[in-house]
Amino acid sequence: MAAAPAEVPGIDLGARRVRDARRRRLSVMGLRVLVAILWLGSWELTTRLGWVDKFFFAQPSEIVLKLWTWITQGTELGPLWDQVFVTMQETVGGFVAGALLGVVFGVALGRSALLADVLGPYIKGMNAIPRVVVGALFAISLGLDIKSKIATAAILVFFVVFFNAFQGVREVDRNLVANARILGASNRRLTTEIIIPSALSWIIASLHTSFGLALVGAVVGELFGATAGVGELIYAAKNNFDADGVFAGMALLAAIALVAEALITALEDRLIRWRPQVVTETRI
Asked: Is residue 277 in a domain?
């Protein structure tokens, strides 16, 4: 009589982990939907009962109707997708420029103690300047076209990425760097093959926050003066005391940020797939 095949503990454990992960994802999605239903439902109910004045705080059903009107009939500034496209141009331009500059300066100062000591106080001082003031300065110096919006978005992104890149370089294993030097690695290879890959987790982590800040910068720039964009759409709704329009614009910005977050997460999974997964790892 043939013996029954023995169970492989590793395979069984792996399958159980996959099932647990799938079950957790479903639970998280279900709870997210429940929170949204409770939040929007209570908001709708309190405005219908008159407990909350919908003139100031809008009403979810009216916000959805406003969005549908914008999609099907356009906005007072033109087609909705034209406004989204303008804001996305400003946001992506500022995000890319700010992220690149932040990585370059963060790695450079992280690699050079002299540069960090000399330029550190200036960077910290500039970081303390309110971003709205910087946006006003860009509006004056660069005009009200797309350049001032991109510059405002870039300056918001720069500091977040810079400080993360700087700290990521400082956290690189010094023994690894010393061993590479012993083996004859040049400064260029040391930076491109050890320093930057080791700091990549820090840099990618900063991008999750940075895109939202780039979006804020673009909208702030549009509020200073623009002829198109989601920020200008919100500004026009505010001038007309249209709370539904203001909240509809905010919902558009939130949707854009969530899509961008999903794309950045996919990029993170692709670039640092070597990173070991933590059992309790949670993503927001």
From this structure: no
In a domain, 237, yes or no: yes
Using CA atoms, how far apart are residues 171 and 103, in angstroms rounded to an integer? 15
Say yes or no: 43 and 65 in one domain. Answer: no
**What is the number of structural domains in the chain?**
2
Q: What is the DSSP letter of 145?
A: S
Mean pLDDT, range 68-91, rounded to an integer? 90
Specify whether 88 is located in the same domain as 187: yes
Per-residue pLDDT tens for 101-110?
999 999 889 8
Domain boundary among 19, 36, 52: 52
Query: Which residue blocks in the chain are alpha helix, DSSP H?
Result: 9-48, 54-57, 60-73, 80-111, 113-127, 131-142, 146-170, 174-182, 187-190, 196-224, 230-239, 243-271
- What are the CA-CA distances from residue 170 to residues 109, 157, 164, 181 (Å)? 10, 20, 10, 17
Residue 3 included in any domain: no
Question: Do both 76 and 29 map to the same domain?
Answer: no
Residues 66 and 189 reside in one and the same domain:
yes
DSSP code of residue 275:
S
Q: Would the pTM count as exceeding 0.85?
A: no
- DSSP, residue by residue, 205-263: HHHHHHHHHHHHHHHHHHHHS-SSSHHHHHHHHHHTT-HHHHHHHHHHHHHHHHHHHHH
Q: Are residues 41 and 79 in the same domain?
A: no
Task: Report the pLDDT value the prediction gives residue 152, as an integer from 0 to 100.
Answer: 92
What pLDDT was estimated at residue 280? Answer: 45
CA 233, chain centre distance (Å): 22
